[in-house]
Predict the 3D structure of the following.
Amino acid sequence: MKGITIPALASLLLSTTVTGLPGFSQSKFNHGKRDYGYKVNWGDFPFPYFDEKLPLFSLGDTVQFPPELLAEIFKTAAPGVEVKNQTVNSSSFFYDGDRLTAFFDKNTGETSVFPRLELLKPAASISGNISRYLKDLRIFPEDDTIPSIVIGSNLLGSRKEKDAVVSNPAIYLKESLIQRSINHGNQRSTVCGPGTKASFSFGSDGAIKALSHRWRSARNLGSALSPMPQDKVRQAITDQLAAANITNATVTSVDLCFYDSGYKYIQPVYRYNATVSHPSGVADNLVVGYIPVSGKAPEALPNLNPPVDQPQPSAAGINPHPTPNNITRRQEAPVTVGRYAMSNDIFSPQIVVDENSLWSGLSLAALIAGGFFSFPEFINSQYYWDEPFIYEANNRQFANGVNFAFTEGHGNVHLFTTNETEPNWGVVNIADIPPTGFGPGSDGALAYWIIRACRTLSTPADYSTADFNQAFDVWWPVFNGLHAVMGYRSDAQVFDNEIGAVGFRIGLGAGVVFAWLEAARGGGKTSAMTVCGHTDDTIFQRQNLGRPGCLQEWWYD
Ligand SMILES: *[C@@H]1O[C@H](CO)[C@@H](O)[C@H](O)[C@H]1NC(C)=O
Ligand SMILES: *[C@@H]1O[C@H](CO)[C@@H](O)[C@H](O)[C@H]1NC(C)=O
Ligand SMILES: *[C@@H]1O[C@H](CO)[C@@H](O)[C@H](O)[C@H]1NC(C)=O
Ligand SMILES: *[C@@H]1O[C@H](CO)[C@@H](O)[C@H](O)[C@H]1NC(C)=O
Ligand SMILES: *[C@@H]1O[C@H](CO)[C@@H](O)[C@H](O)[C@H]1NC(C)=O
Ligand SMILES: *[C@@H]1O[C@H](CO)[C@@H](O)[C@H](O)[C@H]1NC(C)=O
Ligand SMILES: *[C@@H]1O[C@H](CO)[C@@H](O)[C@H](O)[C@H]1NC(C)=O
Ligand SMILES: *[C@@H]1O[C@H](CO)[C@@H](O)[C@H](O)[C@H]1NC(C)=O
């Protein structure tokens, strides 16, 4: 029984310690909020089991991606573009004019290179070979972990000229990943968590166009941890979900991974996936949680509970800051930001975490970039509990009254929800947005809109060829000066803690669309609808694009 998974034992525990069949526990769901046994449903999956101790690793030096290789990648990623290297507190920020093309963050050791999506050629297939990077000990030093090459995601795109047919989805970027693994007993498990990142994306010319690298060498400390028995793991998962007030969850998988925090340790953890279902019409949410294998974490793991005393949205009032519209350059006016959080939902506390993280990311970026550019930055114009009138009857004062709107709630194809105590959870159908649309063309100011909700931005890949138009049709009336709308095409995770990174990239002046697509995709499959030719626009470009003649959609597969 050494280190193998035992499905039979998992089912046995399922029927003894929990409730019996998943359907049964479902029907008992309403009996009492504090009845833990009925709060969580268990899917039928193999539950990992270990009777050997599991190793703990300490993190060593930060591995900095070699500057000379970075310089080489800049040349192929955007030929002929002069990149200027700016340094703050030993972190490097690379700019093409006022557009951020890459950065090296000294605090985390992370290097990110952003592509110019408008320069990429679509292709039916792309190949790229990263074995030369894998072998480079300056990037992946030898240590007690095992790096290997795995296939990543493709970034696809499709466009529609008004009244023409939708172009067939084509690949713009193909990603190769270095996966990091750990051997224990006679098994191998992968490293998870934010501390290990190694993603290389190739364009159709076979050159690297985007990159993300974060890596520290790791040493096996020998001080092994004793895994808890399965019933204790189940109880810990149940308790964690209950403590976060997450009801109606079905745990769909539990596996072992080694969590790299990026700070002190790589520690073995049980990682679970849970699906949270809602009444019909609203897509499921995913929750990923971590339980320390021995019950006691050597270093804190992500917590499902929001920090206490975080700033809360207020009830929607009238926008006190008049927002200028049709702004072309960053120095002309600060960017006004509106944030809207779904209220009265079990996930509202976490939605508020994301709303605050976006602002923290923007603020940190403003502090850094303030040293390179002298210009006004971001204004926290609106931070409100969401309501349908923010997008519908009163949009001119609310979502369409700021340059950058961030909406978070539940969702489904072409809709999102705002307030759970309202009928239909205060749903906003994209089709119900007033036909004057959003942006300076409607006398509004909105240039960029992120809707962090499940499935709102479906893509051609989500329809049959005959129905490709459905991905575009509903958005034409919305674009009236607007540059881009971003969201997910799939179900999305709550608790992924990625929105700060999205805000940081956008605030530094990276292309808004790629910043969202790339930095938010741990939470689900990201997608974005943009005006053709404006995919690489930065948050500082808010000029009136009027009614578009062509829309381009982007998504990860
Ligand atoms: C950017 O500047 C910093 C500080 O001068 C330097 O250490 C680093 O090597 C430079 N990076 C590149 C890619 O030129
Ligand atoms: C990748 O390149 C290496 C040489 O650097 C070569 O040995 C290997 O076969 C290539 N792999 C693929 C899949 O082409
Ligand atoms: C759970 O709900 C209770 C009662 O509404 C609330 O006091 C508590 O803060 C919530 N906990 C979390 C983690 O959201
Ligand atoms: C857990 O969910 C994530 C996100 O959907 C998925 O990528 C992963 O494969 C799932 N894990 C398991 C073990 O099913
Ligand atoms: C609970 O989940 C089930 C599906 O698993 C769904 O049909 C039901 O509507 C959910 N109930 C609530 C109150 O969200
Ligand atoms: C927006 O500003 C640009 C550049 O300043 C100008 O050319 C254009 O006419 C303006 N458009 C509108 C609708 O005001
Ligand atoms: C640079 O470091 C100093 C000292 O730690 C700190 O006060 C300052 O805020 C930092 N600057 C930026 C832009 O992060
Ligand atoms: C949500 O909707 C309810 C019912 O209409 C309303 O009383 C409440 O003010 C709304 N907003 C918030 C933040 O609860």
